[in-house]
Design brief:
Radius of gyration: 19 Å
Structural class: alpha/beta
CATH architecture of the largest domain: Alpha-Beta Complex
Strand content: 15-25%
Strand order of the largest sheet: 1-2-3-5-7-10
Largest sheet: 6 strands, mixed
Shape: globular
Number of strands: 10
């Protein structure tokens, strides 16, 4: 696949996807969304990939939609169709990807860029990272799932504040609010993200896929529903080669090799 707006590499079971429009702070375009949609499908089908790192080239993670490419004359139904395409081909597949995703936020994560980071499972931020739900400054509503994803991690009232005001949130505050998992110096961002991704990628892929899927269901499910999901998932996990390998490794006092058959 020839990529114009993204960089892509796979090392040690970790896929690194880099937004590569540094001259525009990695602002999104339809071309970027098409390439990202195709990569998400490719990653989902590649059994040799166990974890994904998303990051940005240059000073920014992703500055949201490229205002210069916006079409103010687009008809309402055409605009809705485009928006639904992005949600169906990019946002949903990213959230539902059965592999853990780490967002390594190196700078500005604004608007859609903020919400792409929230679609990841873990966010590691550089000390230089800045987040903003900037939409109201453009007379818009938070998109790319932000209304749901942000509320899940910071709570309803704080989500309202951040969306109403569009104010900037630095890395330290993001950590305190709970939507960032850790903050590291800028020069340690990718090494830290890749080290964590490599550790996760060495884990049992079937178990990790089920854990991610079930945790994503948890906020919209009752306790009884989650217990039922858990019973099915655990019953299935006991039948996998990964479980047999884990038991054998424990008995033999060695590290398990869950990827031997991948």
């Amino acid at each position: 696949m020839t990529l114009e707006t993204l960089l892509y590499e796979v090392t040690d079971g970790v896929a690194t996807v880099t937004f590569n429009r540094p001259q525009a702070m990695n602002a999104t375009t339809d071309e970027l969304y098409r390439e990202l949609a195709a990569l998400i499908r490719e990653i989902g089908d590649d059994e040799n990939i166990g974890c994904v790192v998303l990051t940005g080239a240059g000073r920014g993670f992703c500055a949201g939609a490229d205002v210069k490419t916006m079409n103010p004359d687009m008809k309402l139904l055409a605009r809705r169709k485009r928006h639904r395409w992005i949600l169906a081909d990019v946002l949903r597949p990213l959230v539902m990807l059965e592999k853990p995703v780490i967002a390594a936020v190196n700078g500005a994560a604004v608007g859609a860029g903020f919400n792409i980071a929230l679609a990841a499972d873990i966010i590691i931020a550089s000390e230089a990272a800045v987040f903003s739900q900037i939409f109201t400054r453009l007379g818009l509503v938070p998109d790319l799932g932000g209304l749901h994803l942000l509320t899940r991690v910071v709570g309803l009232n704080k989500a309202k504040e951040l969306c109403f005001t569009a104010r900037k949130v630095g890395a330290a505050e993001a950590l305190a609010l709970g939507f960032v998992n850790r903050v590291v110096p800028a020069d340690r961002l990718l090494p830290e993200a890749r080290a964590l991704a490599t550790e996760i990628a060495a884990g049992p892929p079937t178990a990790l896929a089920m854990i991610k899927s079930l945790l994503n269901k948890s906020s919209n499910s009752t306790l009884e529903q989650m217990l039922e999901y858990e019973s099915y998932a655990q019953t299935l996990a006991y039948t996998t080669p990964e479980h047999r390998e884990g038991v054998a490794a424990f008995r033999e006092k060695r590290a398990p090799n869950f990827r031997a058959g991948a």
